[in-house]
Each structure stands twice: as structure tokens, then as C-alpha cells.
Amino acid sequence: MGKIIFYEDRNFQGRSYECSSDSSDLNSFFNRCNSIRVENGNWMLYEQPNYSGHQYFLKRGEYPDFQQWYGFNDSIRSCRIIPQQRGSNRIKIYEREDFRGDSMEFTDDCPSVHERFNYHEIYSCNIYDGHWIFYEQPNYRGRQYYLRPGEYRRYNDWGAMNARIGSFRHVRESY
């Protein structure tokens, strides 16, 4: 069971809200979020309600201000716990939309998409097993996108504004 605590002010001060499940709209619980304590589980946080806007992956730990989770601002409006998975992880990425063009299958993390796949963009993908995080830049930096098992025919299916992906990793129980 996951547990995350949101605080309105930095350094775990001000009003707080404790959450242990997905929430598509946190607006009624707090006005801003400047610090977070993740007590259990891995979480994906979203800048906007209904799991949209900038996304932030947080694992167990303390984040005394929004810059600690690479936040663009103090807005967190929805959250999703990432289920723990044991077993295999498998993803297939494609250079074109609708699963066309060159493709490659992975079962583990990829710190540099360009070095392994020879492209800077991923336009579509299939997540066969596991939960994955795409990062806009190599070495797990930049904007983040959470992908659950399923088909993603276009990059906007995972919430991206463009197809540029520099790295990706599967979500483990803990890092």
C-alpha cells in the first residue's frame, strides 16, 4: 500500500494532505504543493487534474521543495500510485506512429535511446509487461511520462507534446 503526504509550504510545513490511492483531482485538498513526503510506493504526480500536464515520478523519500522533484511550479493536481510489479518487463518502440517503421524490443532500462535505437524520437510503442517512465533527455533527465501496459499509437497518447525521448526505464519496487 502506498502513502504520500503533500504539504502546501516548503520543508513539510503548512496544511497537509495524506493520500494512499489514485486521485484525479486534488484541488479541494490543498491550493499549492511545495513539499512532499513519500512514505511507501512509487508515485506519478501530475500538474493538472485528470492525470494531465507535466508529470513527475517520485519514489520513497523526502522532497522539501518542488525543485527537488524537478517541478516547474508548485502545482500538483492529481496523482497515481504505480503498482508494484515482479517479473518480466517488456517494451517495443517504433520510429513511426501506429507501430510502423523500424522497431526494437527492450526488457531493461535504456539510458540513451539514440545510442541503442539510432533515433531521437519514439512515435509509438507497445508496453507488454511492466510499468515504464519515458524521459525527454538521455540519462533519465527532463520531462517524464508514465506508461502502463497497453498500446500507444502516438506520442500524445502518453501525454507528450512531441516524440523526443532520450531515455526510459522500467519502474522497480525501489531504486
UniProtKB/TrEMBL annotation:
GO terms for molecular function: structural constituent of eye lens. It holds the Pfam family Crystall. One of its GO terms (biological process) is lens development in camera-type eye. Crystallins are the dominant structural components of the vertebrate eye lens. Belongs to the beta/gamma-crystallin family. It comes from the Eukaryota. InterPro entries: Beta/Gamma-Crystallin (IPR050252), Beta/gamma_crystallin (IPR001064), G_crystallin-like (IPR011024). Keywords: Eye lens protein, Repeat. Residues 2-40, 41-83, 89-129, 130-172 form the Beta/gamma crystallin 'Greek key' domain. It comes from Xenopus laevis (African clawed frog). This is Beta/gamma crystallin 'Greek key' domain-containing protein. Monomer.
